[in-house]
Amino acid sequence: MATWLLALDTSTPRTALALGRIDRAAGTAQPVAEATHDDRGRPASAELTTRISALLAAAGVAPRELGSIACGLGPGMFTGSRVALATAKGLALGLDCPLFGLSTLAIVAGAERVRGPVLALLDARRGDVYAAPFRLGDDGPARLADDRCCPLEQVLAELPAEFVAEARAIGPGVAAVASALPAELRDRSLAVPGADGPGLWAAAARAALREAHADVATVDAVYLRASYAELGLNTPKRPPYRSPFV
Question: Which residue, 14, 18, 77, 228, could crosslink 201 as a Cys pair with Cβ 3.0–4.6 Å?
């Protein structure tokens, strides 16, 4: 029996949403509505629930009709990953439906409906990238290795030569490391701004049809490394408040 699947991701400078029908028994997935919002310079958290409501309303789907939720867990922007996951957990718990956790790199890999070998790249800054290789087919992104956070040179050194010879790099990280990409790989690459609706649906549909759902109580965002605050690299904007009662 087909059920409604809602997917969301805010781990990149875009908010990506997707809605469609999933039938696990038949192994079919049908996208119905997608939305991609450019959030550069604006916090996605301020508009996420409004955008979800608008997507559902445009498709004529009531929230109570949702049968499962899928959510990008990162890596990417720490706050964005937490906001998306908190929203997804609230929906899954409130509707008593399964939650599927997605790699944001898998979502980015499917952006612009690319097919074939793909190296998904996000700019992790401080000389690093978030990266993972996939093979994109009609059934979505098939993972070839784990998500990594390390220098691009290390990523390339660990990939098979035949993959690099055929692959396209895609994602917001492409522009940041373009000069370090091999010339042929750079020429085939796409510096997209972030996740998009089609890529999100491809990753969500594959997970919903092939994978076990997450434990809502324990699933967490994927960071791959400590935040600036944890590393002591952020300068507070104001002195810390000290309670007069302690």
Answer: 18
As to burial, measured by CB atoms within 10 angstroms (0-12 exposed, 13-18 middle, 19+ buried), residue 119 is buried
SS3 43: coil
Close Cβ partners of 208 (under 8 Å, ≥ 6 residues apart): 5, 22, 24, 29, 68, 70, 100
Half-sphere exposure of 69 (CA within 13 A, CB side): 28
- Residue 107: enclosing H or E segment and its boundaries? helix 104-109
pLDDT tens string, the chain, 246 residues long: the values are 899 999 999 999 999 999 999 999 999 999 999 999 998 767 666 799 999 999 999 999 999 999 999 999 999 999 999 999 999 999 999 999 999 999 999 999 998 778 899 999 999 999 999 999 999 998 899 999 999 999 999 999 999 999 999 999 999 999 999 999 999 999 999 999 999 999 999 999 999 999 999 999 999 999 998 654 444 545 555 565 555 554
Helix (H, G, I), strand (E, B) or coil at 37: strand
